[in-house]
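User: Last request for today: this protein with 4'-deoxy-4'-aminopyridoxal-5'-phosphate, please.
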Amino acid sequence: QATPIFNFSAGPAVLPKEVLEQAAAEMLDWHGSGMSVMEMSHRGPEFISIYQQAEADLRELLAVPPNYKILFMQGGGLGQNAIIPMNLAGCCAQPATIDFVHTGSWSGKSIKEAKRYANVNVVASGEAGGFTAVPQQASWNLSSGAAYLHICTNETIDGVEYNFVPDIDARVPIVADMSSHILSRTIDVSKYGVIFAGAQKNIGPAGLTLVIVRDTLLDDALPICPSAFHFKTVAEHESMYNTPPTYAIYIAGLVFAHLKKLGGVAAMEKINIEKARLLYAALDADDFYENRVAHEYRSRMNVPFFLRDESQNDKFLAGAKARGLLQLKGHKSVGGMRASIYNAMPLEGVQALVDYLNEFAGR
Ligand code: PMP
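Assistant: Here's the final one, the structure of the complex with 4'-deoxy-4'-aminopyridoxal-5'-phosphate:
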Protein backbone atom coordinates (compact mmCIF):
# COMPACT_ATOMS: atom_id res chain seq x y z
CA GLN A 1 0.00 0.00 0.00
CA ALA A 2 1.56 3.28 -1.19
CA THR A 3 1.60 6.25 1.21
CA PRO A 4 -1.39 8.49 0.44
CA ILE A 5 -0.34 11.86 -0.97
CA PHE A 6 -1.70 15.12 0.44
CA ASN A 7 -0.94 18.19 -1.64
CA PHE A 8 -0.88 21.45 0.33
CA SER A 9 0.00 23.64 -2.66
CA ALA A 10 -1.40 27.20 -2.67
CA GLY A 11 -2.36 26.86 -6.33
CA PRO A 12 -2.69 25.26 -8.72
CA ALA A 13 -3.95 23.03 -5.98
CA VAL A 14 -5.58 19.78 -5.05
CA LEU A 15 -8.86 18.93 -6.79
CA PRO A 16 -11.49 16.43 -5.64
CA LYS A 17 -10.43 12.90 -6.58
CA GLU A 18 -13.98 12.10 -7.75
CA VAL A 19 -13.80 15.00 -10.21
CA LEU A 20 -10.47 13.87 -11.64
CA GLU A 21 -11.77 10.33 -11.98
CA GLN A 22 -14.85 11.50 -13.81
CA ALA A 23 -12.76 13.71 -16.11
CA ALA A 24 -10.48 10.74 -16.82
CA ALA A 25 -13.44 8.50 -17.64
CA GLU A 26 -14.89 11.15 -19.98
CA MET A 27 -11.59 12.25 -21.47
CA LEU A 28 -11.83 10.51 -24.84
CA ASP A 29 -15.59 10.44 -25.30
CA TRP A 30 -17.84 12.89 -23.50
CA HIS A 31 -21.32 11.40 -23.02
CA GLY A 32 -21.24 9.44 -26.25
CA SER A 33 -20.37 12.49 -28.35
CA GLY A 34 -17.26 10.74 -29.67
CA MET A 35 -15.24 13.81 -28.71
CA SER A 36 -13.19 15.01 -25.80
CA VAL A 37 -14.52 18.25 -24.27
CA MET A 38 -11.21 19.77 -25.40
CA GLU A 39 -12.10 19.09 -29.01
CA MET A 40 -15.61 20.55 -28.99
CA SER A 41 -16.68 23.80 -30.57
CA HIS A 42 -17.56 26.27 -27.84
CA ARG A 43 -20.67 27.08 -29.89
CA GLY A 44 -21.86 23.48 -30.26
CA PRO A 45 -24.79 22.09 -28.26
CA GLU A 46 -22.55 19.78 -26.19
CA PHE A 47 -20.33 22.52 -24.83
CA ILE A 48 -23.21 24.98 -24.46
CA SER A 49 -24.92 22.45 -22.18
CA ILE A 50 -21.72 22.07 -20.11
CA TYR A 51 -21.38 25.83 -19.83
CA GLN A 52 -25.01 26.44 -18.89
CA GLN A 53 -24.96 23.76 -16.20
CA ALA A 54 -21.72 25.14 -14.73
CA GLU A 55 -23.18 28.63 -14.65
CA ALA A 56 -26.44 27.48 -13.08
CA ASP A 57 -24.67 25.38 -10.44
CA LEU A 58 -22.34 28.21 -9.45
CA ARG A 59 -25.29 30.59 -9.27
CA GLU A 60 -27.03 28.16 -6.95
CA LEU A 61 -23.95 27.44 -4.80
CA LEU A 62 -23.26 31.12 -4.11
CA ALA A 63 -26.92 32.24 -4.28
CA VAL A 64 -25.94 34.78 -6.93
CA PRO A 65 -28.87 37.20 -7.36
CA PRO A 66 -30.45 37.59 -10.83
CA ASN A 67 -29.08 41.12 -11.25
CA TYR A 68 -25.51 39.76 -11.25
CA LYS A 69 -23.71 38.36 -14.29
CA ILE A 70 -21.32 35.45 -14.00
CA LEU A 71 -18.43 35.79 -16.44
CA PHE A 72 -15.95 33.06 -17.31
CA MET A 73 -12.86 34.99 -18.30
CA GLN A 74 -9.11 34.52 -18.77
CA GLY A 75 -6.07 36.40 -17.52
CA GLY A 76 -6.06 35.25 -13.91
CA GLY A 77 -6.27 37.32 -10.76
CA LEU A 78 -3.51 39.62 -11.92
CA GLY A 79 -5.33 40.16 -15.18
CA GLN A 80 -8.33 41.37 -13.18
CA ASN A 81 -6.09 43.88 -11.43
CA ALA A 82 -6.05 45.73 -14.78
CA ILE A 83 -9.39 44.58 -16.17
CA ILE A 84 -11.40 45.86 -13.21
CA PRO A 85 -10.02 49.41 -13.15
CA MET A 86 -10.41 49.56 -16.92
CA ASN A 87 -14.05 48.50 -16.53
CA LEU A 88 -15.07 50.57 -13.53
CA ALA A 89 -12.88 53.68 -13.51
CA GLY A 90 -14.86 55.29 -16.34
CA CYS A 91 -17.73 55.90 -13.94
CA CYS A 92 -16.79 59.37 -12.79
CA ALA A 93 -14.80 62.51 -13.42
CA GLN A 94 -11.30 61.64 -14.65
CA PRO A 95 -9.00 60.57 -13.23
CA ALA A 96 -11.15 58.45 -10.96
CA THR A 97 -10.03 57.52 -7.45
CA ILE A 98 -9.99 53.91 -6.29
CA ASP A 99 -9.85 53.05 -2.59
CA PHE A 100 -7.80 50.05 -1.46
CA VAL A 101 -7.22 48.24 1.79
CA HIS A 102 -3.66 46.88 1.84
CA THR A 103 -3.67 43.60 3.75
CA GLY A 104 -0.82 41.70 2.09
CA SER A 105 0.96 40.71 -1.10
CA TRP A 106 -2.08 40.33 -3.34
CA SER A 107 -3.84 43.56 -2.47
CA GLY A 108 -0.39 45.15 -2.81
CA LYS A 109 -0.14 43.95 -6.39
CA SER A 110 -3.66 45.20 -7.09
CA ILE A 111 -2.70 48.67 -5.81
CA LYS A 112 0.38 48.81 -7.98
CA GLU A 113 -1.49 47.85 -11.14
CA ALA A 114 -4.46 50.18 -10.56
CA LYS A 115 -2.11 53.19 -10.48
CA ARG A 116 -1.77 52.82 -14.24
CA TYR A 117 -5.47 53.62 -14.68
CA ALA A 118 -6.60 55.82 -11.82
CA ASN A 119 -5.66 57.65 -8.65
CA VAL A 120 -5.17 55.23 -5.82
CA ASN A 121 -6.00 55.91 -2.18
CA VAL A 122 -4.78 53.30 0.29
CA VAL A 123 -7.39 53.70 3.01
CA ALA A 124 -5.52 51.51 5.51
CA SER A 125 -2.52 49.21 5.51
CA GLY A 126 -1.49 46.26 7.61
CA GLU A 127 2.10 46.59 6.41
CA ALA A 128 3.52 48.14 9.59
CA GLY A 129 2.16 45.18 11.55
CA GLY A 130 3.71 42.70 9.12
CA PHE A 131 0.33 41.93 7.53
CA THR A 132 -1.00 40.04 10.53
CA ALA A 133 -4.50 41.56 10.64
CA VAL A 134 -7.16 43.37 8.65
CA PRO A 135 -7.02 47.01 9.80
CA GLN A 136 -10.17 47.89 11.77
CA GLN A 137 -12.73 49.50 9.51
CA ALA A 138 -13.08 52.44 11.91
CA SER A 139 -9.51 53.44 11.01
CA TRP A 140 -10.05 53.46 7.23
CA ASN A 141 -9.56 56.77 5.51
CA LEU A 142 -12.16 56.33 2.74
CA SER A 143 -12.27 58.95 0.00
CA SER A 144 -15.54 60.56 -1.00
CA GLY A 145 -16.74 59.62 -4.46
CA ALA A 146 -14.39 56.69 -5.01
CA ALA A 147 -15.07 54.62 -8.14
CA TYR A 148 -14.95 51.56 -5.90
CA LEU A 149 -13.27 50.00 -2.87
CA HIS A 150 -10.94 47.06 -3.55
CA ILE A 151 -10.25 44.43 -0.91
CA CYS A 152 -8.56 41.03 -0.99
CA THR A 153 -10.78 38.97 1.29
CA ASN A 154 -8.21 36.20 1.70
CA GLU A 155 -4.50 36.96 1.39
CA THR A 156 -3.05 33.71 0.12
CA ILE A 157 0.55 34.43 1.09
CA ASP A 158 0.02 36.21 4.40
CA GLY A 159 -2.84 34.00 5.58
CA VAL A 160 -5.11 36.92 6.51
CA GLU A 161 -8.85 36.53 5.90
CA TYR A 162 -11.68 39.02 6.35
CA ASN A 163 -14.30 38.03 8.89
CA PHE A 164 -16.59 40.93 7.95
CA VAL A 165 -17.98 42.73 4.91
CA PRO A 166 -17.01 46.41 4.90
CA ASP A 167 -19.93 48.68 5.70
CA ILE A 168 -19.47 51.69 3.43
CA ASP A 169 -21.50 54.19 1.40
CA ALA A 170 -23.83 52.00 -0.67
CA ARG A 171 -23.03 54.05 -3.79
CA VAL A 172 -19.41 52.84 -3.70
CA PRO A 173 -19.17 49.27 -5.01
CA ILE A 174 -16.93 46.82 -3.17
CA VAL A 175 -14.62 44.81 -5.40
CA ALA A 176 -13.35 41.64 -3.74
CA ASP A 177 -10.48 39.39 -4.78
CA MET A 178 -11.74 36.04 -3.48
CA SER A 179 -9.24 33.96 -5.48
CA SER A 180 -8.16 31.78 -2.60
CA HIS A 181 -11.35 31.32 -0.60
CA ILE A 182 -14.30 31.50 -2.97
CA LEU A 183 -16.75 28.64 -2.29
CA SER A 184 -15.11 27.93 1.08
CA ARG A 185 -17.65 29.91 3.11
CA THR A 186 -21.07 31.41 2.55
CA ILE A 187 -21.08 34.98 1.26
CA ASP A 188 -23.73 37.59 0.57
CA VAL A 189 -23.02 38.41 -3.08
CA SER A 190 -25.38 41.39 -2.96
CA LYS A 191 -22.92 43.24 -0.71
CA TYR A 192 -20.33 43.33 -3.50
CA GLY A 193 -20.13 45.07 -6.85
CA VAL A 194 -17.57 42.67 -8.31
CA ILE A 195 -16.20 39.38 -7.01
CA PHE A 196 -13.34 37.76 -8.87
CA ALA A 197 -11.26 34.64 -8.47
CA GLY A 198 -8.64 32.75 -10.41
CA ALA A 199 -9.90 29.18 -10.66
CA GLN A 200 -6.70 27.37 -9.75
CA LYS A 201 -7.25 27.16 -5.98
CA ASN A 202 -10.79 26.31 -5.00
CA ILE A 203 -12.43 25.85 -8.40
CA GLY A 204 -10.45 24.04 -11.06
CA PRO A 205 -7.56 24.38 -13.51
CA ALA A 206 -5.54 27.53 -14.09
CA GLY A 207 -6.61 29.55 -17.12
CA LEU A 208 -10.16 30.28 -16.00
CA THR A 209 -11.02 33.41 -14.05
CA LEU A 210 -14.43 33.83 -12.52
CA VAL A 211 -16.06 37.25 -12.34
CA ILE A 212 -19.39 37.97 -10.68
CA VAL A 213 -20.50 41.51 -11.45
CA ARG A 214 -23.60 43.57 -10.63
CA ASP A 215 -25.37 44.51 -13.85
CA THR A 216 -25.23 48.24 -13.09
CA LEU A 217 -21.41 48.06 -13.33
CA LEU A 218 -21.14 46.56 -16.80
CA ASP A 219 -20.74 49.74 -18.75
CA ASP A 220 -18.42 52.15 -16.91
CA ALA A 221 -15.30 51.22 -18.84
CA LEU A 222 -12.45 53.49 -19.84
CA PRO A 223 -12.16 53.84 -23.65
CA ILE A 224 -8.87 51.91 -23.59
CA CYS A 225 -10.53 48.74 -22.21
CA PRO A 226 -9.97 45.87 -24.69
CA SER A 227 -13.21 44.44 -26.10
CA ALA A 228 -12.37 40.91 -24.99
CA PHE A 229 -12.08 42.20 -21.40
CA HIS A 230 -15.05 44.57 -21.47
CA PHE A 231 -17.57 43.28 -18.94
CA LYS A 232 -20.59 44.39 -20.99
CA THR A 233 -19.27 42.78 -24.16
CA VAL A 234 -18.35 39.56 -22.36
CA ALA A 235 -21.75 39.45 -20.60
CA GLU A 236 -23.70 40.10 -23.81
CA HIS A 237 -21.92 37.17 -25.43
CA GLU A 238 -22.42 34.78 -22.49
CA SER A 239 -18.63 34.68 -21.98
CA MET A 240 -18.17 33.65 -25.62
CA TYR A 241 -17.16 36.90 -27.25
CA ASN A 242 -13.89 35.10 -27.79
CA THR A 243 -13.19 31.41 -27.22
CA PRO A 244 -13.49 30.74 -23.51
CA PRO A 245 -11.20 28.27 -21.66
CA THR A 246 -13.56 25.42 -22.42
CA TYR A 247 -11.81 22.55 -20.69
CA ALA A 248 -11.25 24.58 -17.53
CA ILE A 249 -14.95 25.52 -17.51
CA TYR A 250 -15.85 21.84 -17.86
CA ILE A 251 -13.69 20.85 -14.86
CA ALA A 252 -15.02 23.79 -12.85
CA GLY A 253 -18.51 22.54 -13.65
CA LEU A 254 -17.64 19.09 -12.33
CA VAL A 255 -16.32 20.72 -9.13
CA PHE A 256 -19.54 22.73 -8.74
CA ALA A 257 -21.67 19.59 -9.18
CA HIS A 258 -19.46 17.79 -6.68
CA LEU A 259 -19.87 20.59 -4.12
CA LYS A 260 -23.63 20.48 -4.55
CA LYS A 261 -23.57 16.75 -3.88
CA LEU A 262 -21.60 17.37 -0.66
CA GLY A 263 -24.26 19.78 0.58
CA GLY A 264 -23.12 23.08 -0.90
CA VAL A 265 -21.03 25.92 0.45
CA ALA A 266 -22.49 25.91 3.97
CA ALA A 267 -21.53 22.24 4.35
CA MET A 268 -18.01 22.99 3.06
CA GLU A 269 -17.69 25.89 5.47
CA LYS A 270 -18.45 23.62 8.42
CA ILE A 271 -15.70 21.20 7.40
CA ASN A 272 -13.30 24.07 6.65
CA ILE A 273 -13.83 25.50 10.13
CA GLU A 274 -13.02 22.11 11.62
CA LYS A 275 -9.92 21.61 9.46
CA ALA A 276 -8.59 25.07 10.35
CA ARG A 277 -9.32 24.56 14.04
CA LEU A 278 -7.35 21.31 14.07
CA LEU A 279 -4.35 22.78 12.28
CA TYR A 280 -4.09 26.03 14.25
CA ALA A 281 -4.47 24.10 17.52
CA ALA A 282 -1.41 22.01 16.61
CA LEU A 283 0.56 25.14 15.69
CA ASP A 284 -0.45 26.90 18.93
CA ALA A 285 0.08 23.92 21.23
CA ASP A 286 3.48 25.15 22.41
CA ASP A 287 6.37 27.33 21.20
CA PHE A 288 7.70 24.94 18.58
CA TYR A 289 5.73 26.54 15.71
CA GLU A 290 4.41 30.01 15.18
CA ASN A 291 1.59 31.56 13.17
CA ARG A 292 1.73 35.33 13.54
CA VAL A 293 -1.75 36.30 12.33
CA ALA A 294 -4.25 37.73 14.84
CA HIS A 295 -6.64 34.90 15.69
CA GLU A 296 -9.78 36.57 14.38
CA TYR A 297 -8.20 37.12 10.95
CA ARG A 298 -6.50 33.77 10.52
CA SER A 299 -7.26 32.29 7.12
CA ARG A 300 -9.17 29.02 6.99
CA MET A 301 -7.59 28.28 3.62
CA ASN A 302 -3.92 29.32 3.75
CA VAL A 303 -2.00 28.71 6.93
CA PRO A 304 1.53 30.13 6.97
CA PHE A 305 3.71 29.08 9.88
CA PHE A 306 7.30 29.15 11.03
CA LEU A 307 9.49 26.78 12.97
CA ARG A 308 10.99 28.77 15.86
CA ASP A 309 14.25 27.06 15.03
CA GLU A 310 14.48 27.76 11.33
CA SER A 311 17.66 25.70 11.01
CA GLN A 312 15.29 22.70 11.06
CA ASN A 313 13.30 23.84 8.00
CA ASP A 314 14.91 21.47 5.51
CA LYS A 315 14.63 18.53 7.88
CA PHE A 316 10.96 19.37 8.47
CA LEU A 317 10.20 19.49 4.75
CA ALA A 318 12.11 16.27 4.01
CA GLY A 319 10.23 14.43 6.75
CA ALA A 320 6.94 15.80 5.49
CA LYS A 321 7.68 14.65 1.96
CA ALA A 322 8.57 11.18 3.18
CA ARG A 323 5.10 11.01 4.76
CA GLY A 324 3.34 12.12 1.56
CA LEU A 325 2.76 15.69 2.81
CA LEU A 326 3.72 17.81 -0.19
CA GLN A 327 4.20 21.49 -1.06
CA LEU A 328 4.54 22.81 2.48
CA LYS A 329 7.36 25.25 1.77
CA GLY A 330 6.27 28.84 2.40
CA HIS A 331 6.11 31.50 -0.30
CA LYS A 332 9.59 32.80 -1.10
CA SER A 333 8.63 36.34 -0.03
CA VAL A 334 7.90 35.31 3.57
CA GLY A 335 9.79 32.04 4.04
CA GLY A 336 8.80 29.43 6.58
CA MET A 337 6.00 27.01 5.76
CA ARG A 338 2.49 27.24 4.40
CA ALA A 339 -0.29 24.69 4.32
CA SER A 340 -3.14 25.47 1.96
CA ILE A 341 -6.23 23.53 2.97
CA TYR A 342 -8.78 24.26 0.28
CA ASN A 343 -12.18 22.55 -0.07
CA ALA A 344 -10.61 19.56 -1.79
CA MET A 345 -8.14 18.88 1.04
CA PRO A 346 -9.80 16.12 3.06
CA LEU A 347 -9.93 16.19 6.84
CA GLU A 348 -7.62 13.13 6.79
CA GLY A 349 -4.98 15.24 5.04
CA VAL A 350 -5.10 17.88 7.75
CA GLN A 351 -5.05 15.15 10.39
CA ALA A 352 -1.97 13.60 8.75
CA LEU A 353 -0.26 17.00 8.81
CA VAL A 354 -1.24 17.55 12.46
CA ASP A 355 0.14 14.12 13.39
CA TYR A 356 3.41 15.02 11.68
CA LEU A 357 3.57 18.45 13.34
CA ASN A 358 3.18 16.76 16.73
CA GLU A 359 5.70 14.08 15.93
CA PHE A 360 8.30 16.55 14.64
CA ALA A 361 7.85 18.73 17.72
CA GLY A 362 8.47 15.67 19.88
CA ARG A 363 5.05 15.83 21.51
N1 PMP B 1 -5.08 37.16 -5.93
C1 PMP B 1 -4.90 36.20 -5.01
C2 PMP B 1 -5.57 36.32 -3.69
C3 PMP B 1 -4.07 35.11 -5.31
O1 PMP B 1 -3.86 34.15 -4.39
C4 PMP B 1 -3.45 35.02 -6.57
C5 PMP B 1 -2.59 33.85 -6.98
N2 PMP B 1 -1.91 33.21 -6.00
C6 PMP B 1 -3.66 36.06 -7.47
C7 PMP B 1 -4.49 37.09 -7.14
C8 PMP B 1 -3.00 36.03 -8.82
O2 PMP B 1 -3.65 35.13 -9.62
P1 PMP B 1 -3.08 34.71 -11.05
O3 PMP B 1 -1.78 34.03 -10.83
O4 PMP B 1 -4.17 33.81 -11.53
O5 PMP B 1 -2.96 35.94 -11.87
